[in-house]
Design brief:
The protein has 10 helices and 10 strands. By secondary structure, the protein is an alpha+beta fold. The protein has a 4-stranded mixed β-sheet with strand order 1-2-3-10. It has a 4-stranded mixed β-sheet with strand order 4-5-9-8, sandwiched between helices. Helix 2 runs parallel beside helix 4 and helix 3 packs antiparallel against helix 4. The chain binds zinc ion (ZN).
Length: about 280
């Protein structure tokens, strides 16, 4: 391990440890909370890239460093995106998507900008550096099914204004209470689809919280789900039946189900994500 490499890990651990000393419920999203989110996501990005490189027998140092940068970018984009305005959604989706892509590129040993992805709801805009077609638009099938079935729900209506502010579909309910595992909640995010209870006192804070979950989902799908689904796609008789503009998107929901199965609800991953979403829900 090079000293350079070790120093970055030490610095990230230090930032995370310092900011963890703060009281959990600070009234606003202060600089230390921002630093902690960026540092932790940098670490997640680095570990994600290094693991993927390691699995395919490649040297893990460069992927780790590049993954730290990508993860920090993803974290910063998630912070901006979860502010809940149209302008912050545009900047947030761009930055978080590109950051996630850098982590993915680093993990497969490609150049940092080999393929850049920007998510909008269930859609993915992809820009390629090395392929003949420079641009492709694809649909995440699981997210699209969730969106369509939410559209069809008679007690929920689409909120276009909030959708534009989230960079993803947002639905509202003003009469029904949202119950999640027997608990009343202000909102819920399922893959990239958000449902907000209009009745809830601070609906904007609920929106910020749920947008954070959507970014978490996009990152996981890009970095954990897509590599596995691409491997499935390479199996000849399966790949032939799935058009290239469709991404399955089934891995992350399966992962959550497996987590609940192994640890109950909430498991360690879900708890970490809730913590982060609570931080990003702050004003
Ligand atoms: Zn949550």
């Amino acid at each position: 391990m090079t000293t350079h490499f070790r120093r970055i890990i030490q610095l990230l651990a230090l930032i995370a440890a310092c900011s963890a000393q703060l009281p959990a419920q600070a009234p606003s999203l202060d600089q230390r909370a921002v630093a902690r989110v960026v540092a932790l996501n940098g670490l997640i990005g680095g570990v994600t890239s290094a693991m993927r490189a390691g699995i395919s027998g490649k040297d893990v140092r460069k992927p780790f460093l590049l993954g730290v940068l990508g993860g920090a970018g993803y974290g910063a984009g998630k912070i901006v995106g979860s502010r809940g305005h149209v302008a912050t959604a545009i900047v947030g989706n761009l930055t978080s998507g590109i950051g996630s892509s850098v982590v993915a590129n680093a993990g497969r040993g490609a150049g940092w900008a080999d393929e850049l992805m920007v998510p909008v709801g269930p859609l993915r805009a992809r820009f390629f550096r090395s392929e003949r077609d420079r641009f492709a638009l694809s649909v995440n099938a699981t997210e699209a099914v969730v969106a369509i079935s939410t559209f069809a729900h008679r007690d929920l209506s689409i909120d276009w204004k909030r959708s534009a502010a989230a960079g993803a579909f947002v639905f509202v309910t003003d009469e029904r209470q949202i119950r999640l595992r027997g608990r009343m909640v202000g909102g819920v995010a399922n893959t990239s689809v958000i449902v907000i209870g209009e009745f809830f006192p601070d609906a904007q804070a609920v929106l910020r919280h749920e947008i954070a979950h959507v970014h978490q989902h996009w990152f996981m799908q890009e970095n954990w789900g897509r590599p596995m689904e691409d491997a499935v796609r390479r199996v000849d008789f399966i790949g032939r039946w799935i058009p290239s503009w469709i991404e399955l998107g089934i891995t992350v929901p399966v992962l959550y189900a497996a987590e609940v199965n192994a640890f109950g609800y909430p498991g360690p991953l879900r708890r970490a994500q809730e913590n982060e979403a609570e931080t990003l829900a702050r004003r």
